[in-house]
Amino acid sequence: MDQQNHNMPQAIGDAGSMPNPIATATAYHATYHHLYHQKQQQQQRRTICANQYREIEQTKIFKSHNLPLARIKKIMKADEDVQMIATEVPMVFARACEMFILELTHRAWTHAEKNKRQTLQKNDIADAISRTDIFDFLVDIVPTTEGGGEG
Quick one: which of 50, 94, 100, 137 could link to 65 by a disulfide (CB 3.0–4.6 Å)? Predict the structure, then answer.
């Protein structure tokens, strides 16, 4: 029995043996605050994705894009295995790229906000890549900033 209770304080007045209620409350608040913001960010991403899918479903004309379709087609044709490309493919690929850029930017912006900045930096993008499994293919392309940035 003595071995089971060796971590229990001897008396309520023992200094250092009772947890500090202020420190405990502060740690709890910090954890709750972090989880709340993490959940809020997940909800924002879900909303963005839902809006994107709704926009895709309602789109009848795929002619206007922020990315140049001719450049996308040229990049696709750079692969010697690609011989012909259907007309719709560069349009769909452009839309997928736009969604990819939006997701990566949103995650990087979250990192910038966490560091109380309003300017997106390279280390924000590197952090978003390193913390998100779906961006694993970029780990070797975008170097992490070791010791050189906020983080």
Answer: 94
